[in-house]
Design a protein that fits this description.
The chain is α+β, with helices and mostly antiparallel strands. It is built from eight helices and four strands. The N and C termini lie far apart (35 Å).
Length: 222
């Protein structure tokens, strides 16, 4: 069986998990404590980062976006990259927005500071970074609102990798109760649609050692 090496609050790992779920592909989930720099894992991915997907023939594919596009090409139904060149370009633009911009401005400032620094032994959380993450997230939720008031989904009329990328990052921040949903009801309704998908349900059972989730994290009707 294929194996996905992941870490609990890695949005890129969550992205790959959701895509595997959307494709209805069976896989084994293996938690990889990247801070241990395990030799066997470094042979799969010399960067030492998750996610890594190992196919049944032993082929290893690394990176959330790379894994997602690989799976969409090898298992084309349902398609997650859009219906034509322009829509695919927009889906990729939105993936980059969340994997790069949102990650730098929000995910890193909240998830890294509040949780991952402890495991990586990088010292105490930086309160300035946390404040910045909590301020920055409003801009991104406003942008989600702007998009879904004009489209059915983030990149167009069909559910796509754009929604998966955004949902993966927001799910990590939501675990920590740091998404101000009450200030952004349109974005909340969009996220509720993603949260209710079968491919997303497995993420709602994740538990980070020593860090309980927000009280509404498992609730589909939050």
């Amino acid at each position: 069986m294929r194996t996905l090496y992941h870490l609990w609050l890695s949005p890129y790992s969550r992205k790959a998990r959701i895509v595997l779920g959307e494709k209805k592909l069976e896989f084994e989930l293996q938690t990889e404590k990247v801070w241990e720099r395990r030799e066997g894992f470094l042979r799969l991915n010399p960067t030492g980062e998750v996610p890594v997907l190992v196919e049944t023939d032993g082929t290893a594919i690394s990176g959330g976006q790379v894994i997602s596009e690989y799976l969409d090409e090898v298992y084309p139904s349902p398609g997650l990259l859009g219906l034509g060149p322009l829509e695919r370009a927009e889906v990729r633009r939105m993936c980059a927005w969340f994997d790069e911009k949102f990650n730098a401005e929000v995910t890193t400032n909240l998830v890294m500071e509040k949780v991952m620094k402890r495991f990586l032994r990088l010292g105490p959380p930086d309160s300035n970074a946390i404040r910045a993450g909590k301020a920055n997230i409003h801009h991104h939720l406003d942008y989600i609102t702007y998009l879904v008031e004009r489209r059915t989904w983030l990149a167009g009329e069909t559910f796509s990798l754009a929604d998966i990328s955004a949902g993966a990052h927001l799910s990590c921040v939501d675990y920590l109760n740091d998404v101000p949903w009450s200030d952004h009801p349109v974005a909340k309704d969009w996220y509720a649609r993603i949260k209710s998908r079968l491919s997303f349900r497995d993420l709602l059972h994740d538990l980070v050692p020593g860090v309980p989730p927000s009280v509404h994290y498992h609730d589909l009707d939050f």
